[in-house]
Amino acid sequence: MSSSAFSGDKKVGQSLLHSLEQKAIAWTVPKIPHGIETYHLTLTTIPICIFILLFSYLAKNDLRWLWGVSVMILAQYITDSLDGSLGRYRQTGLIKWGYYMDHFLDYIFLCSILTGYSLMLPDAFKDLQFFLLIIFGAFMVNAYLAFAATNEFRISYLGVGPTEVRLIFIAVNTLLILLGRTHLARLLPFVLIFSFLGLCMVVYQTQKRIWNMDMEQKRSTHHDHAADH
Prior knowledge:
75% of the residues lie in helices and 2% in strands.
């Protein structure tokens, strides 16, 4: 695939907060100091993940440390939203490196959050945490495989994208602080079921779209062969 054909920096599909988010990004990007480059923003996910694990560990004894986790989630949202936009605005982006590092670090970010929860929740619920990580990881794998098949990078499904997921994590942290870990942990089976059903729907829609693309190509090839004869 040629460099000009690569479209990993262009996302398709819109989440519920997409319009508001794009307005905020367009206002912010020109104001970023020139000493900050797009790769600086991408790589800030690494220290953010370290702080998430640290604050989660401290939250074992005092759940108020989860405010720190929420601040880190917000910080990662800001840097993750601005890195690609900054590169396009200045025309200095590292498109393929950015695609690779940005989304690899997104997975590390997700793992840091779920690992942090596993440090705090009662032992009886840790198996559910493991399956939740599998399902969330499957959403990411689906996005990357679909991109390889279609050259369209879609990370928002059913109106839910990374922004909404981060807000859900912040809401969970807030409820943990206010209600305690035991009561909220009982909701995990329902979160797991809901996430699994959402994954099934996303995979069904994705494979149907790719199937239709293949069938359209087969019909086009068959028509071309028939025309030759």
